[in-house]
Design brief:
Helix content: 25-40%
Bound molecules: glutamine
Shape: globular
Number of helices: 16
Strand content: 5-15%
Distance between the termini: 13 Å
Largest sheet: 11 strands, mixed
Length: about 475
């Protein structure tokens, strides 16, 4: 996959194009293509034009950085001052936050140009983006298929080249899985590496802002810019990652220990299994050492995730009461009825299901049997991953058990949908980083993604391995032909 950010940045600094002109190109491409993909749910073109002017000044006066003047998008759950941010839920209809998420503050300071907010599963709950109140975004690789979720709109826009890159959120796979379905790169950083301030909460102990881009280098440039401790997020961590983008391409994979867990390949479609094993063979041929590891705890990851995520969601979503934000029901006799009606009318079915599940597992009488047990099992899973990383540097696994489903395919069964998250949720439970990179297309022409997982704060290691594979590993997924092409 070809890089987008560095070449655009070079064109901007060489004066071949101005940010104002580049931004107009993206705006025209969105106007031409967004109806096809339903990627953007709101646009901020006037602000983008102003940001482009500022960026052009930065370029002229020598204060530009790698991201100055480059048009991008934010998932509809990342706050930006004064812009619609609705989590694709009726209950946040019309909501405009009055502050910026820290990750966005950092990009804005560098002169990034935000084009608008992109589609997602309602409150980031889902794996296809079909629970959005605006209807599902479509997969540019084949519009009869879903983008994956929940950051499906970002994945669709970045794949279709109607955003150079985007920020999403990953609570149980929502950056990596849509990246895999759309044939792009998705980075889920270590928990705490990127501030969550201004990311609308789903499951706070699992949520993390991540990057969707067309190449590993693009993801590294953005990660370098948004990571870091933040006084507004007490769970953010002060860790010096160095300049990861600059480190790429300077190391090979000789001696890199790659853990392979058979448990990760159970129930995975054969074409995906073969594609990932071929990729592992590539690493081995280049001097990496393959280590067989055992991860029996993977079986527990899915129930643990769905109990903890729903419990936290039921608490986090208590604030949508019709008083403080967005939508309020009409016709009520008292406050209680107003709250009841607002929540009944404002939340979609999947969100209601999770609030009820979460309330149930937290209720007295069931707390010990479900929530507490899940928390204890979570500790076991974390300990097992820590042990495993004493024997290997990275783990390679599929990103998802399948490629992009046809639209409406999983609609009937929520549990079947939850099962498709098996490969991504352990990463959020343990808080480690992982990156999904495209490998090849399946026999239907839909991209297959591979996950490279590392120990906490090993972003440099996983991105270097991913970069090495992307550059030398015979990747058979190309950048999408459409939108703004270089
Ligand atoms: N698919 C998972 C869920 O529905 C993950 C979502 C996410 O990462 N936001 O909870």
């Amino acid at each position: 996959m070809k890089e987008i950010i560095a070449p655009l940045s070079k064109m901007l600094s060489a004066g071949e194009i101005s940010s104002a002109e580049l931004t107009e190109k993206y705006i025209s491409a969105i106007e031409a293509d967004n109806e096809k993909y339903n990627a953007y749910v709101s646009t901020t073109f006037d602000k983008a034009r102003k940001a482009a002017e500022t960026a052009d000044k930065m370029i002229a006066d020598g204060t530009a950085t790698a991201l100055t003047g480059i048009p991008m998008t934010l998932k509809d759950n990342i706050c930006s001052d004064g812009d619609l941010t609705t989590c694709c839920s009726k209950i946040l209809r019309g909501f405009r936050p009055y502050y910026d998420a820290t990750a966005w503050t950092k990009l804005k300071a560098q002169g990034a140009v935000m084009l608008g907010k992109t589609n997602m599963d309602e409150f980031a709950m889902g794996s296809t983006s079909e629970t959005s109140c605006y209807g599902a975004p479509l997969n540019p690789r084949n519009t009869a298929h879903v983008t994956g979720g929940s950051s499906g709109g970002v994945a669709s826009a970045v794949c279709a080249n109607i955003a150079a890159y985007g920020l999403g959120s990953d609570t149980g796979g929502s950056v990596r899985q849509p990246a895999s379905f759309c044939g792009i790169v998705g980075l889920k950083p270590t928990y705490g590496a990127v501030s969550r301030y201004g990311l609308i909460a789903y499951g706070s102990s699992l949520d993390q802002i991540g990057v969707l881009s067309n190449s590993v280098k693009d993801a590294a440039i953005v990660f370098d810019s948004i990571s870091g401790v933040d006084e507004n997020d007490q769970t953010s961590v002060d860790f010096d990652f160095g300049n990861i983008a600059d480190s790429l391409g300077k190391a090979d994979v000789k001696g890199l220990k790659i853990g392979i867990a058979q448990e990760y390949f159970e129930g995975i479609n054969d074409e995906i299994k073969t594609a990932i094993f071929d990729a592992v063979k590539f690493f081995e041929d280049n001097g990496a050492e393959i280590v067989d590891i055992k991860l029996p705890v993977l079986k527990q990851a899915l129930p643990v995730y769905y109990i903890i995520a729903c419990a936290e969601a039921s608490s986090n979503l208590g604030r949508y009461d019709g008083i403080r934000y967005g939508y309020r029901a009409e016709n009520f006799n008292d406050v209680e009825e107003m709250i009841l009606k607002t929540r009944t009318e404002g939340f979609g079915d999947e969100v209601k299901r999770r609030i009820m599940l979460g309330t149930y597992v937290l209720s007295s009488g069931y707390y010990d049997a479900y929530y507490k047990k899940a928390c204890l099992l979570r500790e076991n899973i974390i300990a097992d991953f820590e042990d495993i990383f004493n024997t290997c540097d990275i783990i390679i696994a599929p990103t998802a058990p399948n490629t992009a489903f046809p639209l409406n395919f999983k609609g009937a069964s929520p549990v079947e949908m939850y099962l498709s998250d098996i490969a991504t949720v352990p990463i959020n439970i343990t808080g480690v980083p992982a990156i999904s990179v495209p490998v090849k297309n399946d026999s239907n022409g839909l991209p297959i993604g591979m996950q490279i997982i590392g120990r906490k704060f090993s972003e440099k290691t996983i991105m270097n391995a991913a970069y090495f594979f992307e550059k030398n590993g015979n990747v058979q997924v190309d950048n999408f032909e459409g939108g703004v092409l270089l």
